[in-house]
Amino acid sequence: MSPGDDFVFGPFRLDPARKQLRRGTRLIPLRPKLFGSLHYLVENSGRLVTREELLRAVWSRTHVDETLLRGTMRDLRSALGDDAESPTFIETVPHEGYRFLAEVRRKRSAHSDAPTRAAGRPLGLLEREQELERLERATKRALERQRQVLFVTGEPGIGKSALVDACAAALPNQHGMIVGRGQCVEQHGASEPYLPMLEAISQLCRGRTGKRVMTILHQHAPTWLVQLPSLVTDSEFDNLQRKTQGAGRDRMLREITVGQGPEEKGFNRSTGFDMAVASEIMAILALATSLGDMKERFGRMVVASSRKGDAITANDIDNKLDESTDLTERPCRFSRNPVIRG
User: Which H/E stretch holds residue 326?
Assistant: First the structure.
């Protein structure tokens, strides 16, 4: 099968390159995990695909229970108009897995020679144009030096990671940005509080922009670099230890600087962050009961004082935490029992 081939079965046409399913000329929207599951089953039509195999193939980096997998199959049958009791397309093999029953033909895609991206917009995220536009608007404001914090929320398997991946993949190409990524994983017992930041820094230092990032860390943030001994030589590590001897965690926060981009023309400045602010932020993140509650708590934070000594809150200076993307706002169109709940 050539990379430009589509799968054709019954009245449907599956386009892997564009991640689209069509019935005739009508586009049938599928979330990324639904499309991935259908693609894998169609690609292995006639063969039993075990539940474990399907989970590895489609949810390779996500912990998924069988309830979500059953919901995925239910939503796929709904999109295809299939019947679980008398299936035409997807058969459930009890305690084993699933089998795709329909005859599958392969045809050259009409779009095989077309570009895979249009105007920098990643393909394959069906019904996520609104969320992508919100991320792009936030990116534009960030480039105009308006700091942005966004939260992408939703239930497991809804496509949060795919949305963020698609947006992050386009940033270096469109704007020359350096994108760092760290994961917040639940820890048991003592743990490193800055682990996500350290993970992101480590990846950046090993990437194509590593030399530039290392120079910035040596100059502005040696206490961060000393936490990553594998990135430096033994002699450099010894020098860093001497340079940062006696430094506490509050210094690590004060070493976060703003304005390292070339458009800043050398005008970089310290954030002035301290442990009191960090502690209050961590307390809000721990105590907030919802996204709305978190916005309200952040808005009440005192961030400065006037010349008269009056407190100034984040709300007073136009709090920028009011932009968020919640994927649970719009339920799945084809689900009889929606996995996505509003």
Answer: strand 325-326
Torsion-angle region of 304 (φ positive above 0: left; ψ -120 to 50: alpha; else: beta): beta
Task: Please determine, for residue 337, whether its predicted confidence score (pLDDT) is greater than 50.
Answer: no
pTM: 0.44
Tokens of 221: 């943030």
pLDDT at 119 over 60: no
Angular region, 19: left φ>0, alpha ψ -120 to 50, beta rest: left
- CATH number of the domain located at residue range(s) 5-108 in this protein: 1.10.10.10
**pLDDT per residue over 159-192, tens digit each?**
787 788 777 777 765 566 788 877 776 666 666 6
Backbone angles phi, psi at 98, to 5 degrees: -140, 155
Question: 93-103 as b/e, with b when 16 or more CB fall inside 10 Å?
Answer: eeeebbbbbbe
User: Residues 34, 79: contact at Cβ < 8 Å?
Assistant: yes
Distances in whole angstroms, Cα of residue 165 to Cα of each of 54, 168, 181: 21, 5, 10
- Tell me if 221 sits within 8 A of 257, measured CB to CB: yes
Residue 87 has pLDDT above 70, yes or no: yes
Domain extents in the chain: 5-108, 193-271, 274-319
